[in-house]
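Recall the central idea of this unit: under ordinary conditions, the amino acid sequence of a chain determines the structure it adopts. In this exercise we apply that idea directly, starting from the sequence alone.
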Amino acid sequence: MPKRTDIKKILIIGSGPIIIGQACEFDYSGTQACKALREEGYVVVLVNSNPATIMTDPGMADKTYIEPLTVESLEKIIAKEKPDALLPNLGGQTGLNLASGLHTQGILKKYNVELIGVKADAIERGEDRLAFKDTMEKLGIVTPQSKICLSVEEAELVAEKLKYPVVVRPAYTLGGTGGGIVYNVEELRTITTRGLNASLIHQVLIEESVLGWEELELEVVRDAKNQKITVCFIENIDPMGVHTGDSFCVAPMLTVPQELQKRMQDFSYKIVDAIGVVGGTNIQFAHNPDDDRLVAIEINPRTSRSSALASKATGFPIARISTKLAAGITMDEIPYWRKGTLEAYEPSGDYVVVKFARWAFEKFPQARDILGTQMKAVGEVMSIGKTFKEALQKAIRSLEINRYGLGVKKFRALTFDALKEQIAFPSSERIFLMYECLRRGVAVEELYKITRIGRWFIGEMKDLVDFEEELLKYKWLEVPDKKLIQAKEWGFSDRYLAELFAVKERTVRERRIILGKKNRYAAIEVSGVPNAAYYYSTYIAEDTVKVSDKKKVMILGGGPNRIGQGIEFDYTCVHAAFALRDDGYESIMVNCNPETVSTDYDTSNKLYFEPLTVEDVLAIYEKEKPEGVIVQFGGQTPLNIAQQLKDNGVTILGTSPESIRLAEDREYFRERMKKLGIMQPAGDAARSLDEAIKIAKRIGYPLMVRPSFVLGGRGMEVIYDEEMLRKYAQAAIEITPEFPMLIDRFLEQAIETEVDALSDGEDTFVAAVMEHIEFAGVHSGDSACAIPPRTISEKHLKTIEEYTAKIAKELKVVGLINIQYAICNDEVYILEANPRASRTVPLVSKITGIPIARIATQMMLGRKIKYFPELKKHTFPYVGVKEAVFPFNMFSEVDPVLGPEMKATGEVMGIAETFGLAFYKAEEAAGTKLPTEGNILLTVADKDKKALLPIAKRLQKIGFTIYATEGTSVFLKEKGVENIEIKKLPEGHLLKFIERIEYESPKNIIDDGYFYAY
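Accordingly, the structure predicted from this sequence is:
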């Protein structure tokens, strides 16, 4: 069936900001969709609110709108653009929910827009819990016993009948948002209330618990001819009860019998036929190994986190192919590299893929590290090896958690009882705790009974720990060669072996190279695309990957997403790859994140799906022999190994590792700033608590204290007294024990601003000055900001530009630099300089129209600023506002207060002719519905009362009913602002007030100078 010619223009809805459960996999899928449709000659209109995406770059779609993802906003765009069709299943849950809303409200019918890929009734059958259950019953496919509930009271009756524990699953949500496992009626009431509020249609499913069963997934693709293929069989190693986004998993299935795989495949084909999805669908099953009962849990009639993983694990580009199929092309028209056309595809490969989640519990000390049906991971890694052992160990060292194997020293200090107690509940640490249990002699069967993780997987871990214990019987020089060879073939890293034997990593590397144990490489062919592949290493097989004699440059990616280092750094890496290709270089990408555009097969000329460690990067460098390596685009990940790479003969392009390091050396940096005449807050560096206390006494409180060499404000804190300093100091020293703790005087009531600039080593161009909306003290990644600045004087802007040029030249920056300043008492202070790409690069590029990452890459290749005529001062007829998006809905026990440690997972952008409208659009895009009427609670400290007065007067004029706590109430009444006084928490009135207005809308609080809307 040829492509459809009755449609010309297609609308794609993006997924919006990065949130837990919906990350950069949808930038990958959306980018693929845009490319695939334009290849076929369609006009593509894209709507997304996330400026940090490749898909929103100019030229990716024919028309791009960076607008709030709301039904109202989309209707305006549809009315203007008049698309023939809407492709909704590549924008995650957001895309599906919006498509459903546009259909339900009659907007698609009104403008004659056809849903392609997935129809409205298919969305309903996949997302509405009742419709899904009914569909499964008609097909004769068993689902867990359950009932739809629309109220807490209904849920209580159902749970009583099913018996606790039960699972609460809200409809039309993502990442298990609002759901969970409940063990009693109190928990049921709390989670059901949360789930009903989270659900688009105010509906939850109360379901019998299948805790401890095997969780299995299939990725299936269907076309308009009803041809179906299974792209990937995924086996979750964690059992049911842990969200698939948190579970670590393998592909292909390693312990599931072929008969069961065939049964699930048959069921999956029945399901996609009945639902009628054209493109990819993810189907999740639960299997009880004790009685062989198999039940369908849910489906995702769209691209998903799992489909991104399946695509990278198999070489089958699900998003690309799904888009082609939605346009009417069928699989028998798409070539398949192995044989014939794509309908003949079968998953194959002589390798094992492991996915491991990356969490951010260190950012939320109040959060309980317990995994359940509501996803908590902020990112993931994928590793490829010839065996499970090799792939598992590669996954661990890919995580960027300073662990290079499964053994963790701190767990050796735990008592036996404490160990067993901690593994009883799923957590981010459980696999490492299990490894220690095996070291202590706990039997495989006992661990299986406690964790319900498969015996085979535990047995593989036991092999590793037994072998490790055997190795430790020897001193390093006495380790038999065959043992070292086996260690490398079983995935033990050089760094981990060096730690075991207390020798240098280089010592291990040199010895195993003498033994002939070098990384060897194999290819994964890309299906449906001629002559495309990507590569992985192994210590087991022969090397089959050829090397070209072209000039080449290597780019080190950012590894797994985490708070502080996310999609923004992938964006810069992708632009570097494009720039290198345009300049005639072969671009070589190294990364291990399956969600990203950088790990797409066609982003770079060559992709190595590998951990970002010295061992793995050095091996690729020695094989490919590039002219140099770019380390300044991947965030902290490549910077952490840059000096070691250089020490091993690697040419680093752009700013040198020494300059990057010197910017973090506070003593050196302070002296350089004095020399340049640039003001800084008083400060110093401390390597011990005693030193810290002496510095604090000298410069005075409050202090801004942080570890060295961290990203995202990791471990950063505002300290108000010595007691707080004592509590903080030890934790800061533990984060980076090899580097000093940095202590600066905290500038209160300061305006914070930051700069992204380009430098060629001599000349510097300031691409943008961003004014933060929150005061200094809130991490820049959490603060809203505006471009161009709104309240900073020309005098201060000129000073900032002068300082930036001086600093870039002093640090010998070649490429990008980000500098943060504070304006306090009419003076500009430098806070810090980072001679690397920052998370604001995509934002600045979108607002200014200057592709600064691409230009920075060309500067690293030797070009000067004078060669770029676009690098000139611009005036803008519009304002861009960035707003951060937070994961507090996934961590209900965490206090949603912002500070110097970053907590945002993503961002959105509002753009308009005025600041007010741009800010409003940014808030709307971030999910905050700014109210125009209702109740508002004001409670501020004495120092903020004066600033509150004009705000309170405006709110009163608009028509809000104002409530205020005692001191604030008296102040406002004295100034003529009528309000209703309520008592603070000790008297209980405030809590009762909040509970009472929980059911009114809107609810607002102004607290300590911040405005919150609920």
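Confidence is low (pLDDT under 50) at residues 998-1014.
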